[in-house]
Amino acid sequence: MTDLDLDIDEAELAIESLRKGIPPTGHLRHFTVGRKAQLKQLASTIQDREDHEPAALLVQANYGAGKTHLLRLVREVALDEGFAVAFVTVDSRSGVRFNRMDQVCSAVMREIEVPGRAGKGIGCLFERYFDIDESELPAQLRARRRNLSMEGKWSKIRELRSTPLWIALRGWHRSRSKDAREVVKSWLSSTWDFNSRRQYLYWHLVGQLPPSTNTLISEAELYRSGAFRFDVGGHENAWLALQDLQTLAGLSGLRGLVLLFDEFEDVIQNLGRIDYQRTAFANLIDLMSHERFTGWKYFAVTPEFAARCRARLMEKGQYDFPVSMFDDLERIKMTPVREQEFLELGRKVREVHGIAYDWDAESSFSDRKLEGLVTKLYSKSSADQVRQAMVGLVKALDTALEA
Fold first, then answer.
1. For 92, phi and psi rounded to 5 degrees?
2. Which of 39, 98, 288, 309 is 20 to 30 A from 354 (CA-CA)?
3. What is the spatial distance between Cα 88 and Cα 204, in angstroms, rounded to a whole number?
4. 59-107: per-residue pLDDT in tens?
């Protein structure tokens, strides 16, 4: 028997996900087998805060071998442990280019999740910040929150360092525009789309502030200083905003912010220009350090990632880049899921399938039959063997149900 407590609807959703070879969101720990040492290491970086500095890790495995699964497992553990989390898939073709930190920052703000709140997006963190009962926070955090708002005056940026993010936070809370919050969510989710709409942002987020909020800075000066831009000065406001999100998480009573980056191989595959790739590699190194972002961050890569980065730079004559730094990045190497471990997973899936469709799956699909099927599925070697085996397992259970 599994340790899952699922009703029929939850079980059916789980099976629908597993039918595609995708572990069901919210229950990843129950559908994870093998790799005990790596899983313990991953979990400990989140759970044992007193013994660990914020982690910066490469989660390393071949394509289809479970990198995404492990990152999503970290997501669940982090949310349970009281962290805000952002799971970002790097995709140069869909506006998440790692040479563009404004795009990376916007992706984080689109995907951010907060414990105990449904949905995702920057609004979840802002709502948490303003809804928290300050009396429950330590005195030091209460003092910093008062400093951030200047005792409710909101006339000068404090505690935060990214002016655009501070303007968004203040506008969310203080603007009298009925559309202010939707403007904030749209802007921060796609910041570059608003680079030519500064007056629109000013009107909703600054021009509609109550008279008691003295901005102290003229509209023209806000424009000149790039106060509504995340892409100026080497994307400095984007870098500062990432750290400010970590700050806001802490001031909201959370343990911090965990960043999870999937498909990082995209940096090599889909960024065609070497200058873009060089910038993306440099951004990776900066983000992995604790100088730019002091929170937790994890990157999914293949075992060949560092070597491929080095080869690409050497191929283009980029000899001055510190390629050895790729080798120094801490990593967790995923071992393959063995056949016996998948059999353990198969028993769990069989039970959930029975709950989902209200049939005696264990009797109709015996252990002996399950063992034979797993052996057959595992005889077909492939890069994504576990995923393909899962698809085959659920298909066999579906067939047995219909028989």
1. -60, -25
2. 39
3. 29
4. 766 544 567 777 888 888 889 889 999 999 998 888 889 999 999 999 9
Q: Which residue has the tokens 């360092």?
A: 161
Please name every residue paired with 173 in a beta bridge, in sequence order, or none if there are none.
Answer: none
pLDDT digits (tens, 9 = 90+) for 237-259: 999 999 999 999 999 999 999 99
Residue in 269, 341, 336 with CA at minimum distance from that of residue 305: 269
pTM of the predicted structure, to 2 decimals: 0.81
Q: How far is CA 258 from the centre of its chain?
A: 7
Phi and psi, residue 191, nearest 5°: -60, -35
Encoded amino acid at 395, one letter: K
Angle at which helix 198-205 crosses helix 163-174, to 10 degrees, equals 40
- Say if strands 296-301 and 56-60 run parallel, antiparallel, or are unpaired: parallel
Report the alpha-carbon distance of residue 86 to residue 248 in Å, rounded: 14
d(Cα 256, Cα 78) in Å, to the nearest integer? 9
Tell me if 230 sits within 8 A of 103, measured CB to CB.
no
- pLDDT, tens digit (0-9, with 9 covering 90-100), for 387-400: 888 899 999 999 99
Phi, psi of 167 (to 5 degrees): -60, -40
Residue 296's H or E segment, with its range, is strand 296-301
Residue predicted with more confidence, 365 or 337: 365
Return d(Cα 166, Cα 247) in angstroms, integer. Answer: 12
